[in-house]
Amino acid sequence: GEDVEQSLFLSVREGDSSVINCTYTDSSSTYLYWYKQEPGAGLQLLTYIFSNMDMKQDQRLTVLLNKKDKHLSLRIADTQTGDSAIYFCAESMNNYGQNFVFGPGTRLSVLP
Amino acid sequence: DGGITQSPKYLFRKEGQNVTLSCEQNLNHDAMYWYRQDPGQGLRLIYYSQIVNDFQKGDIAEGYSVSREKKESFPLTVTSAQKNPTAFYLCASRRGRNQPQHFGDGTRLSIL
Lengths: 112, 112
Description:
Chain A is mainly β and 112 residues long. In chain A, 0% of the residues lie in helices and 59% in strands.
């Protein structure tokens, strides 16, 4: 079956690193994505990683993938108040159409 | 700039009324999607379409209808059969297999 899980809340201090975790169940996933949603807005694609990669870095964002444990994480370095948002993990399977599954989202609060 | 446009941003429905939410994209994407998001919740798939004149039900299609007469447009009608329509509705599109979904800014629907 297809299921993506995330912890629902995370609080960090401004300037610290944030690590948002995600687990997925479908081993046929080809790409895994991180999206950011600010209040009242749509989802913004932050980054994605192909399933045969272990790590991807993009400025302050680092994605780590442990395919054996089906665990994905997003690290945000030097977290700022503008990073406060909901972060969604998503997976797409090796087909088309409906098979794009989102996690429930992690609400990141950045404290001054 | 290419993107996905949802309108209106806010919409109010009276009891027993059908309302239609607009979604237009100029990204030349084949697939389009409609999601519903309730407060503090993740995304639930309502309908999706992979090509013109074809669409499939998602997980919560009851009380909703769609059409896909043009590649650029995928309107969603919330019918009077949908007893709890108050939610945030998100439209997305996708170029093809293993490509990320791109989202509009959403429409917030409320009951009068």
